[in-house]
Amino acid sequence: KNEVEQSPQNLTAQEGEFITINCSYSVGISALHWLQQHPGGGIVSLFMLSSGKKKHGRLIATINIQEKHSSLHITASHPRDSAVYICAVRPRQGGSEKLVFGKGTKLTVNP
Amino acid sequence: SAVISQKPSRDICQRGTSLTIQCQVDSQVTMMFWYRQQPGQSLTLIATANQGSEATYESGFVIDKFPISRPNLTFSTLTVSNMSPEDSSIYLCSARLKLNYGYTFGSGTRLTVV
Hints:
The structure holds two protein chains of two kinds. Chain A is mainly β. Chain A is built from no helices and eleven strands. In chain A, the strands form two sheets. In chain A, strands 2, 4, 5, 9, 10 and 11 form a six-stranded mixed sheet that branches. In chain A, a hairpin with a 4-residue loop joins β7 (59-64) and β8 (69-74). The mean pLDDT of chain A is 93. Chain B is globular, with a radius of gyration of 13 Å. The mean pLDDT of chain B is 93. Chain B is mostly beta strands. Helix content of chain B is 0%, strand content 53%. Chains A and B meet through β4 and β5 of A and β4, β9 and β10 of B.
């Protein structure tokens, strides 16, 4: 079982819809990251969370440390939001700086 | 925010040859990492690039196949040696930033071995 599980694997939405992507993890963490990967392969870091909630434009990320769960929300989705969204955690054990990645959620937003 | 310049962005190579990928970061970093992403899979850590010394490789990856250099704090190279079609993947570098301990990623190198 992967230490980081994302759902759904694939998501298709109509422009303007509210979108939620979920991430669950099984280890104690120092931080959780949400990343966006475009078809060319490049990755952009969206959020780094250790508690609570962060907002940037139409994107909102929340984390519940007790439940080991995080969500990424996109309000008023747009076709340019189409990408793979990846959840990654930095395990607390051993003071590691390595990230453990989920398999990603492929989002397609249709006009 | 910090930017990693990764080159080349893509390449098609003959089996048996080698390809060197470069990454240059424009900010101070603590750690640099190299990842492989096979089709349909999540990112897998190949190694941590250490400045001025041998890289630290993850299980299943060896220096002879993936030699890594990091001659200074902000520059690193990964070579994929003696390539076979199974090496066709996206290769990404990443760095942990000194400023806020966040992570930044390169734009990826899409490698196809024929």
